[in-house]
Amino acid sequence: MLLGGLWHGAGWTYVVWGGLHGVYLCINHGWRKLNIPMPKVLAWVITFVAVIVSWVLFRAQNFQDGLDILQTMAGMNGVVIPGEAKGKLSVLTNFGFQLKSWLDMNYLPEFLGSKILSILALIALTFSVSFLPNTQEILAKLKPTWWWAVWIGVLTSMALLSLNRVSEFLYFQF
Question: Which of 58, 96, 97, 121 is surrounded by the fewest CB atoms within 10 Å?
């Protein structure tokens, strides 16, 4: 996995990213050998957090920037609470919490210019990932026909015929 990190870029953040994925795989295989059951939701949360940690380091300009972002994500730079709770929770400002109005939370991403749409899209995507069939379930029901074979053959032929075209190296900017 370290080589996978080096393949993506020449910086230490890429090497750490690859190393973390290697560590994650070792933990996964070790856990399977222990044969200890884990609730599915907990496994999802652990996987999500682990991948996010490694992605932060992958995308950071340098290792220190990545650590700074991870500290901020962990709440080590204070916690922001919606300002609507100001009257009831103002005592928390003595402990490093900040009270801001809901519409003033600039750290939320904007989707089509609206933070509310961003939140609704995130909720919808979470439900779709959780409750709709995944690709393995969809492909298990797939019954290939001759038409599938013809279309795959046509697409493969087109891909092979376009190999002589020049294309810029994808990771040139890295």
Answer: 96
